[in-house]
Design a protein that fits this description.
- With 285 residues, the chain is an alpha/beta fold.
- The protein contains 10 helices and 7 strands.
- It has helices at 14-27, 44-50, 64-74, 93-101, 120-137, 153-157, 169-179, 206-220, 223-248, 253-284, and strands at 4-10, 32-37, 54-57, 79-82, 107-112, 149-152, 184-189.
- A 7-stranded mixed β-sheet has the order 3-2-1-4-6-5-7, with helices on both faces.
- Strand 1 (4-10), helix 1 and strand 2 (32-37) form a beta-alpha-beta unit.
- Helix 5 (120-137) packs parallel to helix 8 (206-220), helix 7 packs parallel to helix 8 and helix 9 packs antiparallel against helix 10 (253-284).
- It starts with a strand and ends with a helix.
Amino acid sequence: MNSLSIILPAKNEAPALTQLLPRLRAAQPTAEIIVVDDGSTDDTRAICAENGAQCLSSPYSMGNGAAVKRGARAATGDILVFMDGDGQHDPEDVARLVEKMEQGYDMVVGARDWGSQAGMGRGVANTFYNWLATRMTGHVVADLTSGFRAVKADRFREFLYLLPNGFSYPTTSTMAFFRSAYPVAYLPIKAARRVGRSHIRPLRDGVRFLLIIFKIATLYSPLKLFVPAGAVFFLLGCVNYTWTYLHDGRLTNGSTLLWSAAVIVFLIGLVSEQITSLTYRQNQH
């Protein structure tokens, strides 16, 4: 088996790491374990030292995605496994992900079932993201936002510049792999209830989750989002024109504005498609 590096972003997750790191070391005794301390104020460093895990500490919190990027740059393994530091993921599943990769995949993602979702709202949102990503890519996306995944290190590092510093690195990396035609597989897993409180706040992060929807489209094929949107504006313009013509016998500014919006939205999508294509083409060279 290729050398393995396990990367755990963590911010004030000392209680979870106390339980997780010994289990992870027992399950993967030869793996490189890197805990990226994202500005923690607890005993994260001491716990890592006690369990033989490398700890990369930041002087302040930079975000989950920033921690993932920092860990990926420091890792020496040919295969990178990303796990949450809150104790949700089972260390025994690491071997299952790596074994699945040996079938020719560049990324294997641990897909949570409905019972593993953190609440009804998160479950509904993730289900919608999965459906949208599946429609965009033409491939079944079982869990777009899962933070438990194994990837080939060289493939993953190609897209570090695309990854945000916030929480949506799983979405970005998954869509980038699909766009670049790197094989992706999903493996069913059970996620336990996290230890401690989540750092995600529904109200504060509501806009962020909305932006994920647009990121899904723009990272894969912007035209698949902008063409339907433009078609909606065009049809609304036709409906408005039909109504005003039948009642007033004339063309109104409203119809003209809707048709103009349809053209503008389409052109924005066309430009976005070209930018996306150039981004990936430059990356592959």
